[in-house]
Write a sequence for this structure.
DNA sequence: CGGTTACTTGATGCGTGTCAATGTTAGTGG
DNA sequence: CCACTAACATTGACACGCATCAAGTAACCG
């Protein structure tokens, strides 16, 4: 990995200052013992340039990461230079958590913007879960939500038009951004080129471009300068056939629009 | 659920006779204590007719199941009667394991043949994992493999032709059947209509039919009487772009053909 | 300011969907 | 044992969504 390490940050004194702890503790009630275990987890915080592979398919990482800031995606390369983007990842996500139990990466992980991630060694995850079994449940749950999102993407990409697929991705990201408090009303960061959006929904650049033009023309949504602005949320939801239940958001994070 | 209950089978004396225990114990070494916990797990074994929904999207099950025999699939219904089949499930799979941590089903689960499944209440899974933490890891791992398969299907369905997609499904099932010892050389049970195969790979019945005709014409594979016969395994792998690593099979289960 | 990358638009063709009709097979009841 | 039925499989004709090719424009950057 060719990114630059900035800090060995092992020294958060409080729960509020430790980003991983903040993220995980929001899911469940923990005992003092468990919180202590969480807070003593060694994190390595790393700054990553845009368009950089954190992991490449076939690798066998010994650590997993939490996204602190930025925007990442998973992808697979196929024959003839084709690429499928499998998911987008926002702050709070753990896009390679599965490497803890599945040693070989079956896809790659890449930053789309400059990002900050916190690495945790598998070894310390192991130790953490011995001290705080409830945390294992929280992590397991988050990998199950991840799978649920994959199922929804499969259904979209398999059985919907490009217009619906693109609208759906844009809906999902608004809801997810809101759930982590990083949406500005109905506007959010979207550092995804039309090529990449095409690789996510299984469409060509040209077609993505035309669909976006149509969505703009219908007054539903615009993308400009790396930001999505949702102009007509009910309309966008409608054309996407979007229902957020598959995100399995917890009470506090849910936003119905 | 309108299936018929046949046995409350709580009385397997040995590891070999308890199907869930046999399945799970193959993944890892367990202590005597852990095996005891596993063997004392209450199972409810149920026979299910073909084409019966075990679970419908939106339900909140209090139990999960292990497939003992038969063939199941997960699916989602979309607007206008469209359907996406998300995965196929063979004996040994736990297709609704995630309901343990995600209360609301985000898809449905359906039998394609008469099947036998063993239900385990979430409560007893909970108790089991307290007594045998290593089992939590095994179950978590299996849900991660499940997600890996979903990722592979996404890449197929998103970025490959119908011919490749169909060939890929057929390759995957051969390898999975072999890994559980239920393939007859290069022939296996495939109780999937062309409509259903279309719903799995995102194609119309008509097109599925033509593709199958082509695959047959090229001497790669035939489907007849509910069985797939792979005639040219290297050729089928080649046209599918199939690489089994995404199945994350363990040493003993791997079959390279 | 030339080079690079992303976006945009038009023309054309292929892969696949849709519609419609027919063949095939397995099950059902007389 | 044979009409009758209901799925499922198969095939042809035609249309449409989307890919591909090509070319031009806009924005960015050292």
């Amino acid at each position: 990995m060719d990114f630059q390490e900035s800090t060995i940050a092992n020294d958060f004194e409080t729960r509020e200052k430790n980003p991983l702890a903040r993220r995980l503790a929001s899911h469940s009630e923990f005992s003092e013992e468990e919180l202590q275990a969480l807070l003593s987890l060694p994190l390595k915080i790393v700054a990553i340039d845009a368009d950089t592979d954190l992991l490449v398919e076939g690798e066998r990482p010994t650590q997993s990461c939490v996204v602190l800031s930025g925007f990442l995606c998973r992808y697979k390369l196929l024959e003839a230079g084709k690429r499928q983007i499998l998911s987008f990842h926002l702050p709070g996500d753990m896009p390679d958590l599965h490497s803890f139990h599945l040693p070989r990466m079956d896809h790659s992980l890449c930053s789309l913007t400059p990002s900050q991630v916190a690495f945790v060694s598998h070894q310390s995850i192991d130790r953490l879960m011995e001290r705080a079994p409830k945390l294992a449940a929280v992590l397991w749950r988050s990998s199950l939500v991840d799978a649920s999102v994959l199922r929804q993407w499969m259904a979209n990409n398999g059985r919907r038009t490009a217009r619906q697929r693109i609208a759906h991705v844009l809906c999902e990201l608004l809801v997810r951004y809101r759930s982590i408090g990083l949406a500005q009303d109905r506007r959010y960061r979207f550092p995804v080129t039309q090529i990449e959006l095409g690789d996510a929904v299984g469409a060509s650049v040209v077609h993505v471009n035309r669909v976006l033009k149509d969505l703009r023309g219908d007054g539903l949504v615009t993308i400009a300068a790396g930001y999505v602005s949702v102009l007509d949320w009910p309309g966008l939801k409608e054309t996407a056939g979007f229902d957020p239940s598959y995100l399995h958001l917890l009470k506090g994070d849910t936003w119905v629009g």
